[in-house]
Design the sequence.
C-alpha cells in the first residue's frame, strides 16, 4: 500500500510537470473548449465528486478543470487527525486519468506542507493534525509518503491564464507585498524557499483583502482583465471583491464552481451569472 501511494504521487508529479499547456509555472489555455473553475476544496469529498460529475471530462476532451487547496479539512481519524490527504491521493489519480485537462494549482496550505510550517484553520493547526494522521496510518512509511506528497505539491503550477484574459490563481500578493513579488517565479523551477515568506510563491498564495489599486497593478503585470481566486473564506460560496475580482469557495454546502467557454469574452457580471452552486449537481 505505501509503495503504491508513493508511486502514485511520483507519477502525478511527473504529470504536473509534463502538462502540455504548462509554460514554466503557468498553465496557458488557448481560445478553444471550455473550463470549469473551482475554489478551495479542503477535504470536502462530496463537492469533489460533484466537480468530477459536472466536468464529465471523459466525454468532453476539450474541457479543462482547475482544482485548488485540496488538503486540510474534512474527515478526521479517531484521534482527530486530518485525513484530507486521502482526497489528495484521489485528485492525483484524477490528474493521471486526464493529465492535460485537470490542472491543480498551488494554494497556501500546500506551501505550509511543502515547507513543514504551521497553518490554522477553524482554530486547529492543520499541518500537525495531518502529519499525525499520516503517521498513524502509514507508520514507518509515513516519512517517505510525506516526501512524495511535498514533491507532488511543489510540482503544481501557480496559475492559469486563458486567451480570453481571465487569470486564476489561489490568491495574489497582498497590498504591502506587491513590490516584493518577482514575476520571474512564473518562468523558473520552483524551490522550497519560494514557498516561504517572503518568497514569491508564498506571496502569490497568501494575500488577502486586495485593494483595487493592487488588482489593477497585477492585471497589468499578468496582462489579464479579470481575476478568479480562492483562499479567502466565502460563507455564501462566492463574492465580487473588486471591479475585476471574483473569489470562489468550494469547501462547504454553499460552495460553487464557475464554468466558462474559452472561446468567449466575459464581463464580470456575465461571469457572476454563470456561477453554479455545487448542491445543484446530483
Sequence:
Amino acid at each position: 500500500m505505501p509503495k503504491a501511494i508513493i508511486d502514485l504521487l511520483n507519477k502525478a508529479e511527473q504529470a504536473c510537470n509534463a502538462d502540455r499547456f504548462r509554460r514554466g509555472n503557468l498553465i496557458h489555455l488557448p481560445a478553444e473548449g471550455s473550463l470549469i473553475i473551482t475554489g478551495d476544496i479542503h477535504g470536502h469529498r462530496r463537492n469533489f465528486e460533484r466537480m468530477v460529475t459536472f466536468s464529465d471530462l471523459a466525454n468532453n476532451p476539450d474541457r479543462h478543470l482547475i482544482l485548488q487547496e485540496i488538503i486540510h479539512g474534512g474527515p478526521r481519524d479517531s484521534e482527530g487527525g486530518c485525513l484530507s490527504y486521502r482526497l489528495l491521493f484521489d485528485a492525483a489519480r484524477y490528474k493521471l486519468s486526464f493529465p492535460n485537462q485537470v490542472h491543480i494549482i498551488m494554494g497556501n496550505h500546500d506551501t505550509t506542507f511543502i515547507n513543514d510550517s504551521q497553518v490554522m484553520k477553524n482554530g486547529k493547526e492543520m499541518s500537525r493534525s495531518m502529519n499525525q494522521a499520516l503517521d498513524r496510518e502509514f507508520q514507518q512509511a509515513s516519512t517517505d509518503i510525506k516526501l512524495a506528497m511535498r514533491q507532488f505539491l511543489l510540482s503544481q503550477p501557480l496559475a492559469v491564464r486563458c486567451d480570453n484574459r481571465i487569470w486564476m490563481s489561489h490568491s495574489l500578493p497582498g497590498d504591502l507585498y506587491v513590490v516584493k513579488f518577482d514575476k520571474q517565479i512564473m518562468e523558473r523551477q520552483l524551490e522550497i524557499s519560494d514557498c516561504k515568506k517572503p518568497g514569491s510563491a508564498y506571496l502569490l498564495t497568501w494575500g488577502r483583502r486586495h485593494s483595487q489599486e493592487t488588482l489593477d497593478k497585477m492585471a497589468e503585470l499578468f496582462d489579464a482583465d479579470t481575476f478568479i481566486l480562492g483562499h479567502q473564506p466565502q460563507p455564501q460560496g462566492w463574492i465580487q471583491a473588486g471591479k475585476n475580482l471574483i473569489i470562489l469557495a468550494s469547501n462547504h454546502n454553499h460552495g460553487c464552481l464557475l464554468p466558462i467557454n474559452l472561446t468567449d469574452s466575459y464581463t464580470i457580471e456575465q461571469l457572476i451569472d454563470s456561477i453554479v452552486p455545487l448542491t445543484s449537481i446530483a
